[in-house]
Amino acid sequence: MQADATRQVVLDTETTGLEWKKGNRVVEIGCVELVERRPTGRTFHCYLNPDREFEPGAQEVTGLTLEFLADKPRFAEVADEFIAFVEGAELVIHNAAFDVGFLDAELARLDGFGKLLERCTVEDTLLLARQRFPGQRNSLDALCKRLGVDNSQRQLHGALLDAQILTDVYLALTSGQGEIGFASEAPQAAATTVVRTVATTDAVRPCVQVQAEEAAAHAARLQGLQKKAGRCLWLELETAG
Q1: Does residue 157 have an active-site annotation?
Q2: What is the rounded average pLDDT of the residues 45-70?
C-alpha cells in the first residue's frame, strides 16, 4: 500500500527482551499522529499481556511488571485497532528494525495481517541521525541533548512518552521545520509601509520598513533554528549576502 505523504505516525514499542526470535513479546505500543509535520492530537497507546516472563534487565528498563500487565489485552485483541491507526502512514521509528521485527512477529501469530511494511513505509531516525552526526552517539537521549529536546520526564522507557519525545527529535533532526512558528498567539506591532521610488524604473513600489523589535525577534528565531537543526539556510544566505 502506498503511504500518505502528508500523514506520519511516530511509533515506539516496549518488549520483554531484546530479540523477538527468542520468543520475546511486545508489552506496550505508543503512537503519535502527524499530518503535514504537525501533531494532530491523535494517539494510539496500549499495554499488552505478553503471556511470558521478562528477560533479565528488561523489566527494570520499562518499570512494567507481569502483575500490572496481567489484566491487559493480548496483541490479538488490539491488532485491528492498531492496524487501522497506522494503515497507509509513514512510520517514524528510532532503530526501526527492532520495532518492526517485533510487530511483524506479533502479526505473524495472527491470520490475514501480513507484514507491517505491506501497509506502511518507514523512516528510521537512527539512520537519519547517523548520516547527520557520523561517529557520535545517536541514542534517543543523546539526540535530545544535542538537539535541545526536553526529555526530563523520561525516567523509564515508556512507549507513548518515547514516541512523543521522538516526535520533537524528528522535527528538529529534519531541519527543524516544525519549529518555524509562523503563527504566533502574541499580538505583533503592525509593520510600517513606506512608498519609495525605485531608481531603475519609473514605477512606484511599496517597501516594508521592519521595526527594530521585529528584526531582533527574527534574528533570535534564526539562531534558535541554527542551534536545533545544525544549520539555517536563511542565516547562510544573509552571510553570503
Answers
A1: yes
A2: 93
CB-based contact 51:42 (threshold 8 Å): no
Query: Which CATH number fits the domain 7-179, given the four candidates 3.40.800.20, 3.30.420.10, 3.30.465.10, 3.20.110.10?
Result: 3.30.420.10
Residue carrying C-alpha cell 499522529: 33
| Catalytic-role residue among 45, 94, 157, 218 | 157
Q: Where are the domains of the chain?
A: 7-179, 192-240
Render pLDDT for 95-113 as a digit per residue (tens, 0 to 9). Answer: 999 999 999 999 999 999 9
Which pTM value belongs to this model? 0.71
CA-to-CA dists, residue 31 to 34, 61, 157, 220, angstroms: 10, 19, 14, 33
Q: Calculate the dihedral angle through the C-alpha atoms of 227, 132, 11, 55, rounding to the nearest 10 degrees.
A: -110
Whole-number pLDDT of residue 189: 41
Q: Which residue has the cell 493480548?
A: 74
